[in-house]
């Protein structure tokens, strides 16, 4: 049986991988191309990830291949190339790119057409003018696009996109009616290729924003915002003071009920449960509740029924009386004898 030493196996695989390392590092770059403002073609490969310098060449259909004359570099590495566009109609032709590494490895990528990969420059010099007699806002701008009839402009209000989002064809101005002078607007415009010249999927960047609204209105709004903030703080402070004042008045008018546990402890520990001494009843008040008269006592005797029955009926039986002697009956014979 043959045994394979594990460290030797790892070193063998490492030596096999090292010769192919340049091939792995020279992986096919991802090339993306677009036409800038119908003036030149810009091709970018692996932006911000390049670790070597590439050479680039390209050609349109029915044209010769040309090496790149203007490279785009980042961190001292080539990441792109700009190719002049001789004729805008070339955007409808096939475009072939060739990217070569330092080890003469060439990677090819073909584009059927760059028609939908056209990006125009952003409009500039956007201005806003208020027309007093018809209460209209006039927006005007400039563009570097060579063919004005092939451009579509898109306007927006950055503060409220639902209020203004419209497209304008060919012309470089737009009139906005029913504008509120008490509102603050921020306008921007961008452009793309119109459908009559071959629609593009790319829009230009937005133009620099332009604000509209009188400085007085804007400053007035800012002043009111500061005033509202100060008033809010003052109202909050007054509410806190009122709360403290009402709480203090509540304590004075409705004092806190004392805890009865301490007094009950005194009743059982100090006074041994004697309520009279605990509540401190005065001698005079205690004597006032004592009775100052006497009543004669009366003995109550139980009446026993007679055990012997009388056989002869009695017409009017004498009522049974108690055998108890009353003080008043004992004195009657004496009074009769004296009489």
TrEMBL record:
Signal peptide, first to last residue: 1-27
Pfam family, one: CRLF2_D1
Membrane topology: Single-pass type I membrane protein
Alphabetical GO biological process terms: immunoglobulin mediated immune response
Chief location category: membrane
Superkingdom of origin: Eukaryota
Listed GO CC annotations: external side of plasma membrane
Keyword check for Glycoprotein: yes
Compositional bias annotation for Acidic residues: 328-339
Location(s), subcellular: Membrane
CDD domains, sorted: FN3
Stretches for region Disordered: 296-339
GO molecular function: cytokine receptor activity
Ranges that cross the membrane: 223-245
Domain Fibronectin type-III span(s) in chain numbering: 122-217
Keyword Glycoprotein carried by entry: yes
Swiss-Prot/TrEMBL keywords: Glycoprotein, Membrane, Receptor, Signal, Transmembrane, Transmembrane helix
Protein name: Fibronectin type-III domain-containing protein
Species for this entry: Culter alburnus
């Amino acid at each position: 049986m043959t045994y394979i030493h594990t460290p030797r196996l790892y070193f063998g695989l490492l030596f096999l991988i090292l010769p192919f390392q340049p091939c792995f590092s020279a992986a096919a770059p991802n090339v993306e191309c677009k036409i800038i403002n119908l003036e030149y073609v810009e091709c970018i490969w692996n932006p911000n990830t390049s670790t070597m310098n590439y050479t680039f060449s390209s050609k349109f259909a029915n044209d010769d291949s040309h090496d790149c004359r203007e490279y785009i570099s980042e961190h001292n590495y080539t990441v792109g190339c700009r190719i002049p566009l001789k004729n805008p109609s070339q955007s409808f032709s096939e475009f072939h790119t060739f990217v070569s590494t330092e080890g003469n490895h060439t990677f090819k990528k073909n584009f059927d057409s760059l028609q939908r990969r056209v990006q125009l420059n952003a409009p500039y010099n956007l201005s806003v003018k208020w027309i007093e007699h018809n209460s209209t806002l006039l927006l005007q701008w400039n563009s570097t696009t060579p063919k004005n009839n092939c451009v579509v402009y898109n306007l927006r209000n950055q503060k409220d996109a639902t209020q203004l989002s419209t497209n304008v064809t060919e012309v470089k101005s737009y009139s906005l009616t029913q504008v509120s002078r008490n509102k603050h607007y921020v306008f921007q415009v961008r452009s793309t290729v119109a459908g009559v010249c071959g629609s593009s999927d790319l829009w230009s960047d937005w133009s620099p924003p332009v604000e509209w609204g009188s400085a007085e209105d804007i400053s007035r709004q800012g002043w009111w915002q500061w005033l509202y903030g100060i008033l809010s703080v003052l109202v909050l402070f007054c509410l806190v003071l009122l709360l403290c004042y009402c709480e203090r008045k509540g304590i004075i008018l409705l004092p806190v009920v004392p805890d009865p546990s301490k007094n009950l402890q005194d009743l059982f520990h100090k006074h041994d449960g004697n309520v009279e001494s605990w509540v401190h009843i005065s001698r005079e008040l205690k004597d006032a509740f004592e009775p100052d008269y006497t009543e004669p006592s009366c003995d109550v005797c139980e009446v026993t029924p007679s055990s012997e029955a009388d056989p002869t009926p009695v017409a009017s039986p004498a009522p049974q009386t108690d055998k108890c002697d009353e003080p008043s009956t004992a004195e009657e014979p004496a009074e009769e004898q004296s009489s």
